[in-house]
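Cross-posted from the bioinformatics board.
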Amino acid sequence: MNIQFRDLPEGTASVSAKTAIADCDIHPARATKTELYPFLAKRWQEHLETYDKHAYQGMMEGPPYPKAQPNASRRDAYPPEGGPQGSSLSFMQTQHLNPNNVVLGVLNPLATGQGIRNQDLADAICSATNDWQIEKWTSKDSRLKASIVVANEDGPAAAAEIRKRAGDKNFVQVLLLSRNVEPLGQRRYWPIYEAAEEAGLPVGVHAFGFGGNPITASGWPSYYIEEMVGHSQCQQTALASLVLEGVFERHPTLKMIMIEAGFGWTPSLAWRLDKVWQRLRSEVPHVRRPPSEYIRDHIYWTTQPMEDPERRQDLFDVIDWIGWDKLLFATDYPHWDFDEPSRVLPAGVSDDNRAAFYLGNARKVYGLS
Amino acid sequence: MTAIVAGGVDCDLHPAVPHLTSLLPYLDDYWRDQVTTRGMVDLVSQSYPANSPISARPDWRPAQGKPGSRLEDMQAQALDPFEVAYGICNPLYGVQMVFSEDMATAFCRALNDWLAKEWLDRDSRLRGSIVIPVQNVEKSVAEIERCAADKRFVQVLMLVMGDMPLGKRHYWPIYAAAERLGLPIGIHAGSNYHNPPTSVGWGSYHIEDYVAQAQAFQTQLTSLIVEGVFARHPNLKMVMLESGFTWLPPFLWRLHKFWRGIRMETPWVDRAPLEIVRSNIRFSLQPVDAPDDPALLNRLLDHMQSDELLLFSTDYPHWQFDGNDALPKGLSPELVRKIMIDNPLATYGRLRATQEATP
């Protein structure tokens, strides 16, 4: 929902509901382009000044599909001290964390080193971003937790970064994006899953990313809305790849979180996988159980953007099929399609399910209970 | 099992071209010479490897030759047991995969003539889909016009994965011709493999490609709706073939939400996506991607909020069900009648016309 509440006095809740919530998808931004420099070697600072990032897409500045709003973010989320939306801790606290009673906020930095073609640069920026998350955010507000961003196309470098951060309580997950050079189950990414499992961290897969592949299997579409809707198809395919390559057979304790790509598609995908697996399992003997079982045992979903049927019961059917224990509430602050915490679940949901949905499931999957 | 009603329409049958040489009689001298001189091989798409379990039901495999290559088998295995009045032939021969527009045009023309002569002429229940050289719009329109003179061709056939998203204006002359001639556009699972078969790249396995067909249909539906194809062509029907349909409601919830949020980007989309689907888009029944649970299936059908979207199909000879269970458990007799008869006749204007002309 593109709900705006810009007229509220500072520090006031938008509604009376004060349920403590986890927000499992918050996007912290850099206030300036050089904010990472203190965490980067001089060599990489000079590289960025000279060549900038060399990504798997053509635009030097901004995304190939112009967003619906500047920085894809709420117009009321610009910090009073300047800088882009999401770049000020104090304003994030005032506008979001305090009034919405966020007791656990998971930071998912975008525009890091992921999707860059130069893997050494990718690794340097990711590592710097991880330092920056501690310095600027988690060390200053204990409600916030960071994600380990990694050079996603360089498995060994990514695994080394995960091992470097393992055991650091500032971090609660490893963060990947859904769109990469290859589908996420491919072997080039296996060192990431191995290191994450070893560190006891879930791997979040956030919608988006660049890997050079068109966002449809028929080439590039025309519009931003197609990219936005298409993230769900990318996520479905990435999940199918993880299951069919046997990642969860190899890593029986690995948990993964599908972030910002919806969850309503899951039952149909799982049923289709199961049905086709019955026919074609001789091609993938390493997939020993029906695919839906791996999904059930290993996958969680953040809620935003909640699918929004005319009839709420339809959505509850889908949640029943997925499990109320598998959804993690998220707002996507400060992005424009923010889901307002008090409005996503109507009356009629049991207290237990409501508590799990808003906070309990997140504490469990992030090991914070 | 759910009982069928006689007199229905099977909207997805796959007659197989035995070999590229079967098309030689339908090619002109130049292309006949090209095929032989260059030693061209059979055009089998990797969407359906010949011996893959998905490509043919075990009991529908002939002792030799490709499944679906003999009319007698199709009659005995599909047309007769399901007591259909009509069966729509959707040839999946790999003519879309070639890169030369001229070669694709020659092969499509030969394929359509082959279908008319070797199948439609030999069983009056059969109807055809016009296969077109999609890379070249002018030649596609010409082929549609050429074949449409034969009223037994009832739709135009495209693959769900090609060079560009199907809503792109590049393709609109094809849709204009189809609408003008009263032909729905059938969009079938499959790819020309000019792009990776998933939106995140090339997977390792055949099973991944098959699962990903459903995601390809989703992105095409987005493209067709937001590009405004149905604002421009309100009477055009499109039929998603072998697409699965259980993904449709959650897909539309998501599309609807974003359309409400950013409709300023595509202001020509003058109706909600769900309304556009209800009026212009149909889905073949098989495969039914759902558990074998009547109560759950009926919840899914209720989520679709319309009993007019599904068209009966066996997907012969692909292996989607066993025995005679072409209809999933739990469908009401009223819905069976809609799926098998009313919905196909409402979709395929040329079948309706034949039906009305028959005393």
